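Teaching assistant's notes for section 4

Start the section by putting this record on the projector. Ask students to predict, before seeing the second block, whether L,D-transpeptidase family protein will look compact or extended. Collect guesses on the board.
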Amino acid sequence: MTMRPPHGTTPGTSRGAPRRTPCPAPSRPPGLGPGTWAEVPRRSRQVLVVTGHDRNSPLATAVLYERTGVGWRAGASRAAHNALHGWTDDHREGDLRSPIGVHTLTDAGGRLADPGTRLPYDRSDRFTASGTGFDGEPLSGSFDYVIAIDYNRRPGTSPLDRTRPLGPDRGGGIWLHIDHGGPTRGCVSLAEDAMEELLRALDPDREPVVVMGDAASLER
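Reveal the predicted structure now:
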């Protein structure tokens, strides 16, 4: 004999069990306040969020978010370094702080061969780092892969281009590059495998940007 479920229930559920309402997809990546989010171009569908641990800390976390049909999907969380003295809203040459803000990501390059990025890629032996960092760590290999952050530079050119539209006193040459195990002078650095992954993931058709700064600043 076939048993029928009680009226008002469905097989596999108990009478009166509460229905679960799906959580709504986030309208923006977590940790970004309305002021910061307003600076992100509406057409951007890839947002790399670099969150500094503190205003004066050289430690950060980087996550690539991709816009999907149901909201923003987070990639892996990656440890990162930023400038020795932390972050600033008014970056100046030599201040040893990374510039807070939203910047497009349009160009890449490095000493090594293109790992398969869709960004324009300039392979050159001029991507050479030498000497030691602030913690005495060797800098060799730091520029094997780089992605230019479009702060005070001309998009659509090699990361090596030294044009500074805001003037030389506002700094420049702010890149994403391979981590050397210590603070940077202004760039953001990630482990080599994370840089390779990021280079392959970024798609110019998705108009990628980086949103970077200390957590408190990004929440504004």
